[in-house]
Amino acid sequence: MTSRIVLVVEDEAVVALFLTDVLEELNYQVCAVAPSGRAALELAAEHRPDIAMVDVRLKGDLDGVETALQLHEQFGVRSVLLSGDPEALRTAQSRGVEPVAVLTKPYTPEQLRTILNQAFSG
User: Fold this and answer.
1) Confidence of residue 1 (pLDDT cuts 50, 70, 90)
2) CB within 8 A of 64, min separation 6: which ones?
3) In 98-112, which positions are buried (b, 16+ CB within 10 angstroms) versus exposed (e)?
4) Which of 4, 24, 56, 103 is deepest in the core (most CB within 10 A)?
5) With a threshold of 0.90, does the pTM exceed it?
6) What is the 3-state secondary structure (H, E, C) of 60-79?
7) Inter-residue contact 8 to 53 (CB < 8 Å)
């Protein structure tokens, strides 16, 4: 049986809370919320999530694209990138990140469910 442990990487508290609530309603276990790329790497080392939901525009020295790249390289954690920018996938791929998907904000709980079902079944 595939576990369903998710790390939320989001620096806006309200958005992180919304995302956490939706994930838990969809029966995913949110292991932690990281407000920065550095915190995400520390929390991934501790919790070993199956997937990370990563905001592309994080404050700090690691943006979301670099954070997703590091999560995959260091821990084998795949990411769903969250962005208000429809060009985020192209930017991520140009930097060597192959996300599970890119969800453009605003997204619906149903879109999130579909993406995560695909991620965990594939």
Assistant:
1) very low
2) 9, 37, 54, 55, 56, 57, 58, 81, 82, 83
3) ebbbbbeeebeeeeb
4) 56
5) yes
6) CCCCHHHHHHHHHHHHCCEE
7) yes
